[in-house]
Amino acid sequence: MRYSKAAVSSPASIANFGPGFDSFGLCLDMPRDLVTLRCAAAGTFQVKVTGRAAIPTDPLKNTASYAAMKLAESCGHEDFGFSMTIKKGMKPGSGIGSSAASSVGGALAAATLLGVKDKKLVLEAAAKGEELISGAMHFDNVAAALYGGFTVVSDARARTILQIRPPRFEVVVVVPDVTVETRRARAILPEKVHMRDAVSNLSWASGMVHAMMKRDVPAIASHLDDSLSIPYRKSLVPGYDAVRESALSAGALGVSLGGSGPAVFAIATGGSAKIRLAMARAFKESAGLESESFVTFPGEGARIESVS
Ligand code: HSE
User: Fold this and answer.
1) What SS3 state is found at 201?
2) Per-residue model confidence as pLDDT tens digits over 24-47
């Protein structure tokens, strides 16, 4: 073991980012989870959770500890043991990649203790943590939380992740007081989609990648549409259409659903305070829902805060 203690902060992210179902991810500057891992006797695993959410403390049911165990396993470290503290900065089931943030934090902290430098191993272990919660192995949130910026899972089988440095813009995130389980939000999606919907998404997704590379914020905003998941999922987010309209009327450049919801996000280059208020008010007036909201920016991925 190289070190005995490592602390990693790992950020929220927006999966799908409009048309990129299971492919696009935007890393957010905040909120972040803080995962601290201390070496313990081989085979001993303990988890403590603090901060703003109750998540499982059973090491086999907690995404961060599960990802840390998977990372050690993948490198042949059967002698690994740890005590982990997770300070949750975000609420699970809110659509901003809470489980991915914890999974990436756990996997990267374990990699740091074990002297593992290969980020692909961290990605793989974190995706296993994500799978534990959502029932499916998808890399969009974990890639964004690990690498930062805008990420594209261009080949999930080969684990190929493209990284694009996005321009700076405001991201207004409003999380209504309903929980959407990713597992359920995936289960309501159809097995087959219309060719015209697939073609629309191909066009929007291609436009999004070009807009990101050109660092063109209005073009990013105009490629946020989606025909493959949001039309089915918005029934899980009461007030979605009204909130979307309110954000656009208040000056947002574009609006979409965060991951599998219920977070709704808007992007803007000014006026975010007004947009945030309008969206929160629309949730209240159209659906009777209280909400939490914040304004952030595209951000950097998980980072090692301290090691000793
Ligand atoms: N791409 C995943 C989904 C993200 O939309 O189901 C879940 O956080």
Assistant:
1) helix
2) 999 999 999 999 999 999 999 999
Return the SS3 of 14.
strand
Give the domain CATH number at 184: 3.30.70.890
Q: Do 21 and 139 have their domain in common? A: yes
Of 13, 14, 17, 21, the residue with max ligand 1 atoms within 8 A of its CB, to mutate for a pocket test, comes to 21
Q: Which residues are catalytic?
A: 130, 182
Cα 260 to averaged position of ligand 1 atoms, centre (Å):
5
Tell me what pLDDT residue 134 has. 82
pLDDT of residue 1: 67
Range of the domain at 19: 5-165+298-307
Are 12 and 125 in a shared domain?
A: yes
Contacts of 161 (CB under 8 A, 6+ apart): 123, 139, 143, 147, 151, 152, 153, 154
The answer on 177 and 96 residing in a single domain is no
* Same domain membership, residue 186 and residue 160: no
If asked whether residues 140 and 19 sit together in one domain, one would say yes
Alpha carbon distance 55, 188 (integer Å): 24
Domain match, 10 and 151 both: yes
Among protein residues, the one with the nearest Cα to ligand 1's atom 8 is: 259
Atom in ligand 1 nearest the alpha carbon of residue 97: 8
Over the stretch 46-84, which tens digit does the pLDDT of each residue have?
A: 999 998 777 899 999 999 999 999 999 999 998 899 999
* Residues 250 and 235 sit within 8 Å (Cβ to Cβ): no
Mean local confidence (pLDDT), 281-305: 98
Alpha-carbon dihedral 239, 244, 246, 248, rounded to 10 degrees: 180
The total number of structural domains in the chain stands at 2
What pLDDT shows up at residue 252?
A: 98
Asked if residue 2 has pLDDT above 80, the reply is no
CATH number at residue 113: 3.30.230.10
Are residues 229 and 191 part of one domain? yes
